[in-house]
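Appendix B, record 7
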Amino acid sequence: MSTATSGASPAAAARQDAQRPYAGGESGSTGGVDAPGGEQRSAARSRKPATMAQALNRALHDALAEDPDVLVLGEDVGTLGGVFRVTDGLAAQFGAERCADTPLAEAGILGTAVGMAMYGMRPVVEMQFDAFAYPAFEQLVSHVARMRNRTRGALPMPITVRVPYGGGIGGVEHHSDSSEAYYMATPGLHVVTPATVEDAYGLLRESIASDDPVIFLEPKRLYWGRSADWSPERPAPVPGIGRAAVRRSGTSATLITYGPSVPVCLAAAEAAREDGLELEVVDLRSLVPFDEETVTASVRRTGRAVVVHESAGFAGPGAELAARVSERCFHYLEAPVLRVAGFDIPYPPPMLERHHLPDVERVLDAVARLQWESDWVPEDGTVGGGSTVGVAGRGRGGAR
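Structure tokens (predicted):
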């Protein structure tokens, strides 16, 4: 993330950073993987940066090429190449039988995938948009999530369900939902969501290879984020499903986040430096299984935590995360775990979504309410959780 530009406030500069295409973790990090050598970096500079959509396309291509049991199915995934062109060119190369267009019937698509998986295939299902997946919930909850347990392991369910999700693209109702809480609350499913180009490729390949069903949530607003370090010929390894990644190290507080909110938190952490705060950013990557070890280790180091996501706050993912952190880190906490989330409303019209989605200022306002030990009072004189202040007015005395 770039630092604040001359003549602009840290918050304004951070907001601009949050809108720029996201190319990975801190300093191009891929979540703990060693940086490539000098020759690789030189080659990376000569390559055209790859987008998340291209990395997903390459992951599907490589999976189809390596395993004849893998196939892709969904609405418009064949001839059109998908609404977001993630499946572009796959039907032409592998044929309509392995990259198949389906009717507009999500329950039928997923039900068909269940039968395929029972006979040893590895279907990759695309739900065209997040809320389009709702008609398939009966198949998902009653069969996909339960089949392996129901048969005592005799019938694994190697199904990957790709779901473009989240807001930030000006989409209307049913095109911008953050529905991860439904999947997280369904035992038997793995739920993952990449925030980097590297993770998009690595996590999708691992999801397709898994014998357990995986809900693969793709942040739509990050489809066009780029990475100059990722090579489709030699993709770097990434941590597997069930592992979080520290995208930015810090000592003042921990921002726990995932998917589309990762670049927002990185921008907020950059802005907070102007006030002497060093915020650690943990990208969960995998919502189920949850990497409790990495998250709790971070919170125990910093003593404060804020959970950030686009999904609704009430009974949302942050509720479980905050409860788990509070239980595991109670004696290390210096303030309650706070949440920054979407409002408890149906997704708003495109012109209003900027008010609904967590942004840098909302994250920094939560950080300011983490009970810092100082004589600081907001510039407007208000005290308490309802105050909203600029970055420059936030306290420094309690920074760890």
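Remarks on this record: The chain has two domains: 10-30+242-391, 47-227. Residues 373 and 398 are 5 Å apart (CA to CA).
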